[in-house]
Write a structure and sequence with these properties.
It is built from 15 helices and 11 strands. By secondary structure, it is an alpha/beta fold. This is Class I SAM-dependent methyltransferase.
């Protein structure tokens, strides 16, 4: 078996064991802590150029098994790929046509998997977006409450404000804004499963008079400036580069003059928005977020400005998301048996790689997370925001 292995593999020094379908194994370095179990002989040739997409796909399709801590698995697979592949900048971006039908199907694929599955590893409020760690020592629950408060404070939310929550998920932010800040909230989603549970939670908290959750596409938002504030969390990643201008125009039309718009979402490393190299981006597109496209900070900021909004504050939460995803991954890994009863094995394999892999990607700086606060200026170009950020941290 050793003679059949490519020389490039034999010369590596990684704490990684290759175990083959016939029981034989080969250690790539001393004291291996991760094992790749090759179940399909045809994979041997692929191991000479193991892109992250190839390795992930083989695991998802059951052609190989991965043994060891999922976080160590991700790191060792990256090191293996890095050692045997030339670092590249990923393929040139192929722009995706996004229409209402395609977007609804993509959202359903990801978010309608199983509410019970998400409840296994999210916080109690089921906030499926980057948490906010003031010290780094918070629990996930504390950090998610921090994030909800941070967003509302950045929006200078006041009692009686009418807030639009674009991509409201299970309604955690909408309920928080209503309960803690006295806002009226309209939340929109394309996920029927999210809407069902979100409405149940609104009713359970007695917030029906303040919170209205609906199935609605952002393209159909009212354009009469009825909302005092707009927040969009983890949503614009699904819009697609081709529709970013329209997306920003719809937010502009929804908010009143002097109102604030907060866009919280994942941003690309590269200015043109192409995915990170060695196949990681391709894996996410294939298995996790079909047709998702990440814009660079400069790209989304330009579209926000072109729509007529003024960018007034930008904050990176990249390391916060690395920690958030690590929490999610660790929680899922601790409940794999329960998860296996809720979703198909293939789906569980995808999510194990996705959560641990994205935590690694944010920590490495392959992708980022930015909160972009914008204002719709008054007719004379002014606005009423405070002169400094001091009010946010009192």
């Amino acid at each position: 078996m050793l003679a059949q292995l490519p020389a490039a593999l034999q010369n590596l020094q990684l704490p990684l064991r290759l175990k083959f379908w016939n029981g034989l194994h080969f250690d790539l370095g001393p004291r291996p802590n991760v094992t790749i179990v090759v179940k399909d002989p045809q994979l041997i040739s692929q191991l000479t150029r193991p892109s992250l997409d190839d390795l992930g796909s083989a695991f998802v399709e059951g052609k190989l098994e991965l043994e060891g801590s999922i976080n160590e698995v991700i790191q060792l697979c990256d090191e293996l790929s890095q050692a045997l592949l030339q670092e590249d900048d990923g393929p040139q971006p192929q722009r995706v046509a996004h229409d209402k039908t395609t977007d609804a199907a993509d959202i359903s694929y990801h978010y309608d998997l199983s509410n019970d599955f998400y409840q296994l590893w999210l916080d109690q409020e089921m906030v499926y977006s980057c948490a906010y760690f003031k010290t780094g020592s918070e629990t996930l629950e504390q950090a998610q409450q921090n994030k909800l408060e941070h967003l509302c404070r950045k929006l200078r939310l006041q009692r009686g404000d009418y807030l639009l929550d674009v991509g409201c998920g299970w309604g955690g932010l909408a309920r928080f804004a209503a309960r803690e800040f006295g806002a009226r909230v309209m939340g929109i989603t394309l996920s029927k499963e999210q809407l069902k549970l979100g409405r149940e939670r609104v009713k359970a908290e007695g917030l029906e008079q303040q919170v209205d959750l609906q199935i609605l596409d952002y393209r159909d938002l009212p354009q009469d400036g009825r909302f005092d504030k707009v927040v969009s969390v983890g949503m614009f990643e699904h819009v697609g580069h081709a529709n970013l201008a329209l997306y920003c125009e719809r937010l502009f039309g929804a908010v009143r003059e002097g109102g604030l718009v907060m866009n919280h979402g994942i941003t690309a490393k590269h200015i043109d928005g192409r995915p990170v190299g060695r196949g990681a981006g391709e894996f996410i597109d294939r298995y996790v977020f079909p047709h998702g496209e990440l814009p660079h900070l400069s790209m989304i900021s330009a579209y926000i400005s072109d729509a007529g909004l003024e960018v007034v504050d930008v904050e990176s939460l990249r390391l916060h998301y690395a920690r958030t995803l690590r929490f999610w991954s660790d929680r899922l890994e601790a409940k794999l048996d329960d998860a296996g009863r809720l979703v198909p094995e293939r789906a569980l394999r995808i999510w194990r790689l996705y959560l641990a892999g994205c935590s690694y990607a944010f920590a490495k700086g392959w992708i980022n997370l930015h909160q972009i606060l914008a204002v719709k200026p008054l007719a004379d170009g002014s606005h009423t925001l405070p002169w400094t950020r001091a009010d946010l941290y009192r």
